Amino acid sequence: MRKFVLKAALVPVIVLLAACGNNSQRYLLPEISVEQRLGTAARAVEVGKLDLPTYAQDSEINLQDADGVLRPARNGFWADDPDRAMTELLAVGLDQALSADVAAEPLPFSGLADVRVDVKVRRFVGVPGQTMQLTGQYFLTSPNGGSLQTIKRFNFSVPIASDSINDYALAQSQAIKLLVGDIASSISRVSRSQI
What is the distance between the alpha carbons of residues 163 and 74, in angstroms, rounded to a whole number? Predict the structure, then answer.
């Protein structure tokens, strides 16, 4: 009897969980492609995990309305942890944009990178059908003890083509692509004596 009661009690919970899981849609950040490749004195670059605002770390996609209020997208979730996905997207973009080998931390080989990139995002949000805003600052340092210490602020706006989550995700990727270009340009100016 006890087993029957336990099973009967679990059925509604399982059905409820299944119903919740079926309604959610998971979105990937679209890949980016960087056409211009810049030379650099650095041989290896390590990208630290992006420091995102709390709302941007959430697996539930948060959209800003015209009044500036952030609201969760209806049944819209990121397919990966946003900080991991954005860090990987940034690292892949920098790997395409630079002559150096680039990877997200930790580097998969022994030794230290010549340059480390850390990004602190202050704002990464958009109004669907309007614009995506990405602001913050990034830091370039030399893990090998060189003199490299660069701090630069960034502020990018990207149009969001429509109210769809797909276009929202595409705008986020395009904003990261702009950040890739800015960081790659800074790393290309780093001299061998700084690292």
Answer: 12
- The ranges assigned to domains in the chain are 2-194
Q: What is the pLDDT of residues 127-152, one digit of tens each?
A: 989 999 999 999 999 998 899 999 99
Residue 156 binned pLDDT confidence (cut-offs 50, 70, 90): very high
Tokens 């860090």 sit on residue: 87
- Helix, strand, or coil (residue 153): strand
pLDDT of residue 154: 98
CB 45 within 8 A of CB 85: no
CATH 3.40.50.10610 at 2-194, yes or no: yes
Is beta strand 25-27 parallel, antiparallel or unpaired with respect to 60-64? unpaired
Contact 48, 119 (CB under 8 A): yes
Q: Which two tokens stand for residue 92?
A: 């892949």
